[in-house]
Prior knowledge:
This protein is of the alpha+beta class. 20% of the residues lie in helices and 40% in strands. The chain is built from two helices and twelve strands, in the order H-E-E-E-E-E-E-E-E-E-E-E-E-H.
Amino acid sequence: MKINFLKFSVVGLMLSVSSFANSGLINPSFEDGLTGWNVNSIGTSFGYGPQSALATDGSKSMRMYSVTSCANKGCGGFSFSSGDYIGLSQSLDFTGITEILFDGTLTGSGQSSYQSFIRAAAYIGSTLVWSETSLGQYLNIGIDTTLFSGLQVLEFRVEAIGAGVDSQSDHIYLDNIRTNEVIAVPDPATELLFVPALLGLMVLRRKAKNSIA
């Protein structure tokens, strides 16, 4: 009876330690195209697609961009309204996740920065957690996610925050999206319970063997 009780105690403690596992991102480097990701949009003046250019992990990245009708030719472009966007999203269990990291390259057609009313952005649910308008390569960008838990939607966007005509196309290439997670280890109180239980089980097993002999 004592042996069975200790066995159940040890198993219970082991299960409590391993129950902090989180489901990971699907296709975080876009090697399988859009598998695992949803495309969301408001307005029609955006585009997207996998690219072999500017990949930082594997051979592909994912590009999102604003559309122009005839960039660099002096004939204007599509008109944008505030709130228009193109986004890639995926649901993720944030329990135990402390940080989201990603690589992003912002480019444009002949300008030094995004148009004044266009930006690249990242959201968790409806909360803006990152935005940028300056062109360049951004590696290992970290987003603190300690305030989020449970199932949330992670979304990356190219979006209009004002109205205007985008005479030069604005792009973001996304890649290597990943998480930092809490490593599940026993707390000191759990360890104090676990060690005596394990030692007791070993002693009882040895006594049982000796009695049989």
